[in-house]
Specification:
Strand content of chain A: 15-25%
Helix content of chain A: 40-55%
Order of helices and strands of chain A: HHHEEHHHEEEEHHHEHHEEEH
Oligomer: homodimer
Shape of chain A: elongated
Distance between the termini of chain A: 52 Å
DNA sequence: TGTTAGCACTCTCCTACTGAGAGTGCTAAC
DNA sequence: GTTAGCACTCTCAGTAGGAGAGTGCTAACA
């Protein structure tokens, strides 16, 4: 267990290092944080903290730097709550009151704002519509070739799309087909449906020859393409350039790997698949090798009470944790407010 | 005017420099390209070419590097057609036959592919639906609160969206409103409509008290939000990390500015607002200061015979122009094929 | 026993210097 | 008009040296 003084030293070192990005020595610490003891004593404490794994020394005649464990301890036990400045608050307010409602635009803006407020990279996953269960699929005939497909879920979400079908399609085909899909899929969770369930149902459909075969195949395929595409969660990345200002990202090779990651939506989605509430993964705690010298802080956001997406900040392990957490909490609220206000998709 | 030998020297220098990224000296040139003359002669020609502004010398004892003018002359007069390798052809085929149809996914993939095939950055603007003229706006009542809004243009494009409206809405309101908008806007180019025309019509509408005021306002606002959002062209950027491998982008500050640019959709749209066919802007020929040490090569792609979007590659001025042009031409075809095959939006 | 002053030691970083290498322009000869 | 030869210039990589920062250890002190 750490003594009170060791905790203070660790806390001071984290604070100092987060600020300056330079290894902190005993002298700096004694000068800037009045710990009430001499540099020699601090040196002893630092040596102990290093032995316990909370600090690292880049080289023998440099100051100390918090290790992943050190940050972990700081986050779990030492961190104090932060407050937003007025100008930060203003930025968030502007964002809320901008009146933008279109999901793409809101999330892209939000991820950039996240970056601006944290000076790291902002990441946001689009709300998963696929949290609910399917209630019904409707196909509405609009004109000879145009059909409106509607999909209702039990949590009030709605997906829609106009499909273009072959001219031979007749209304009763559509009805049968919609009824078939609705019947087979109703009550099932959306995740399951967009996964392999849909394929199964499709195969079964092909074996039932109650409908003019060719046509059904075409319609079903169009329908399936739509359902699967809708199931795709997207990730919005904002402010990648901001991270280049951080001294730990002066290495081009590192930056390259990160930028490559930001274009791999599948990997990002995996990275952002997180527990509700604030979650912090520091350095090696991350599974993904590329981000093992980074920290990812995330929060989930909810729409109408259901948790549906993740807002996150990715930055160096030397991160202003308290501030990032605060920003994420506020952003989660903003998104909730923006999206819950109405049911527009 | 350049002599035949000067043209050969310039061509050889461009080829060499594009390959090696090192200033090319007279000796290298004599060895690798058999120009049939001695290094001294080449030196004389180089000095002349420099005087005419086609070459630059980074410092007095270095080789020569093509200037923006040099590249321009090369592109206009010296460049030879390139051919795709089998593996490149394969990548493109895979892309076409992947069967993806959803615009977002296709364009994101395409921009990455563009980057992969060029090793620079791929940029693609989403197809402008707003090239045509409005034919009609339809509002179809689906259920008590749900209304399907449809927008037809004279070039066969179709936008649709389900709007959620207040429960008091009645079918005749919708009809009147749709008729009003259709009547006032029909025949007008979409660009105009999503611009200030819509605002004007909206204001006029507010002054006509033929409709229950409050309700109309709400519907009209929802409708307008949709129209304006639909007018927003998007830009897909792919392979930003690839550019970091280029020696001209070792400077972090440069990279930062570029990355920042890639998040400024408005600027990108401006940059990608280009003439039909292949367009090349080299270095200082670009208006945007950030890209004045870059080259942007673009092609427009057409859907059903109408040019609607831009595919482009952004890289260093030291670029394999012939290859990039080739890749862009092929990509434009791919997109045309993908999107024209059906009318799905 | 915990704290502190003093000191030798280590390591990085910056600067200056040097020599090798590459490439040029010029001159004179072909 | 072309070429060989040569003096000159500039960069780059490697090396050496000194300043600066920080440590760990020891011995003295409260």
């Amino acid at each position: 267990m750490l003594t009170e003084r060791q905790r203070e030293v660790l806390k001071a070192i984290v604070a100092e290092y987060v600020n300056t990005a330079e290894p902190v020595g005993s002298r700096t610490l004694a000068r800037r944080h009045n710990l009430g003891v001499s540099t020699a004593t601090i040196r002893n404490e630092m040596a102990d903290l290093e032995e316990m794994g909370y600090l690292r020394q880049p080289h023998v005649s440099a100051g100390r730097v918090p290790s992943d464990h050190g940050y972990r301890f700081y986050v779990d036990h030492l961190m104090e709550e932060d407050r937003l400045t007025y100008s930060e608050q203003n930025l968030l307010n502007e964002f809320i009151y901008s009146g933008a409602r279109e999901a793409d635009l809101v999330l892209a803006t939000a991820s950039r704002l996240l970056s601006q407020l944290s000076s790291y990279v902002g990441l946001i996953t689009s709300p998963r519509i696929h949290t609910g269960r399917l209630v019904e699929i409707k196909l509405v005939h609009l004109s000879q070739q145009l059909v409106l497909a509607l999909l209702f879920t039990d949590n009030g979400q709605l997906e829609n799309r106009v499909l273009v079908l072959p001219p031979e399609v007749e209304p009763e085909h559509l009805e049968t087909l919609a009824a078939y899909f609705s019947c087979r899929l109703a009550g099932r969770p959306m995740e399951e449906i967009t996964g392999r369930l849909l394929d199964e149902v499709y195969l079964e459909l092909l074996e039932e020859h109650t409908l003019s075969h060719n046509l059904v195949t075409q319609i079903a395929e169009t329908l399936m393409g739509w359902l699967k595409a809708g199931g795709r969660s997207r990730v919005f990345t904002g402010g990648t350039h901001n991270i280049l200002a951080q001294p730990e990202f002066q290495d081009l090779e590192k930056v390259r790997h990160l930028l490559a990651l930001f274009e791999e939506e599948a990997l990002l989605l995996q990275l952002l698949q997180r527990e509700p509430g604030i979650t912090i993964t520091i350095g090696r705690e991350n599974r993904l090798p590329v981000v093992q010298n980074c920290t990812v802080v995330s929060s989930t956001y909810t729409i109408n009470g259901r948790s549906t997406g993740t807002v996150a900040v990715l930055g160096p392990t030397r991160m202003d944790y308290a501030h990032v957490i605060l920003v994420l909490e506020h952003m989660a609220c903003c998104l909730e407010e923006t999206f819950s206000a109405q049911d527009d998709n």
